[in-house]
Write a structure and sequence with these properties.
It contains 13 helices and no strands. The protein is mainly alpha-helical. The mean pLDDT is about 90.
């Protein structure tokens, strides 16, 4: 049952990362919050990468870093756009859209001819995930402004209808799907542990670049009270990544994958309980349809 507890830890950590990243990035007046979030994740991942190299004995080389660089940049780019999006849209809506990237990966694989034959429930899962995301976008774009203002009153954060609010999580979905597709190809020639360390070191460099741009060039101050949620989210993100790898390496990936894939629903729960986000029944219906597709894909994963 070790795989089960690893999966639960990954689920809780990644949903926790969603939650604290939202708290750290939701201030629409701070246009540098996404760079500060990248700084936080880069710092934490950099520390973990150094631990893996000098304590865990993971082999790393410039060849591995350069080979994995395109994948790393796709992942880092998607996460940065996701952090921007948290300023403009509820986490309850953003997280399911971002997590629909698995369906997009399947579509890319089918269109490129690299997909293995799939069972009919997998095609159904792709259709459900896509339909749910499209439905979320339609509901969000057509919601009455008075109803929107009324349901957002409890959270004390008002989000106006905006193409950018939906475009950013959709962009995350596209880039993350491209990263996952490329990941599958590149990992045929690389060790998974070495590739993960290469990714973390690249994130560290991205964090340093963001620090130089934000704090040195733009002379932005870092207020500990405002930055603390970002670093908590970064810690959860890194721990979740570690236990995700452990869970899939345990030999029960077909059981672990659907549990971990459901973390976006836990993110919705946290946002409802603690951020006081309240959606319409149409939103929740679309989220449920999206989650059903994600869950079915998780069940058939690996």
């Amino acid at each position: 049952m070790t795989w089960f507890w690893f999966s639960i830890i990954a689920l809780l950590c990644w949903s926790g990362s969603d939650f604290f990243s939202k708290i750290g990035c939701r201030d629409a007046s701070d246009k540098y919050s996404q760079f500060k979030m990248v700084m936080a994740v880069g710092a934490v991942m950099g520390v973990h990468a150094l631990y893996e190299i000098f304590v865990g004995g993971v082999a790393i080389s410039w060849d591995v870093i350069w080979t994995y660089l395109p994948v790393s940049l796709l992942y880092i780019g998607s996460m940065t756009l996701g952090y921007v999006g948290l300023r403009y849209i509820e986490l309850s809506i953003s997280s399911p859209i971002c997590n629909a990237s698995g369906a997009l990966v399947a579509i890319i694989a089918i269109l490129s001819g690299t997909a293995d034959p799939m069972a009919w429930p997998q095609y159904l899962a792709i259709a459900l995930a896509c339909a749910g995301v499209i439905g979320l976008g339609f509901v969000e774009a057509n919601e009455d402004e008075a109803l929107r203002a009324a349901r957002q009153e409890a959270s004390n954060y008002k989000y106006a209808k905006s193409w950018l609010a939906l475009a950013l999580p959709l962009a995350y979905c596209v880039l993350d799907a491209a990263g996952t597709f490329a990941d599958d190809l590149v990992l045929e020639t690389l060790n998974e542990d070495s590739a993960n360390v290469a990714y973390e070191l690249t994130f560290l460099v991205a964090g340093v670049v963001c620090f130089l741009y934000t704090c040195v060039y733009k002379k932005q101050n870092l207020v500990p009270r405002m930055e603390a949620p970002k670093y908590i989210g970064a810690i959860f993100e890194t721990i979740g990544q570690v236990f995700y790898i452990y869970a899939l390496a345990s030999g029960e990936s077909a059981l672990a994958a659907p549990i971990i894939a459901s973390y976006c629903m836990v993110s919705v729960l946290w946002s409802r309980l603690f951020l006081k986000e309240k959606l319409s029944w149409k939103h929740y219906l679309c989220i449920a349809v999206t989650f059903a597709g994600i869950l079915i894909m998780g069940i058939y994963d690996m």
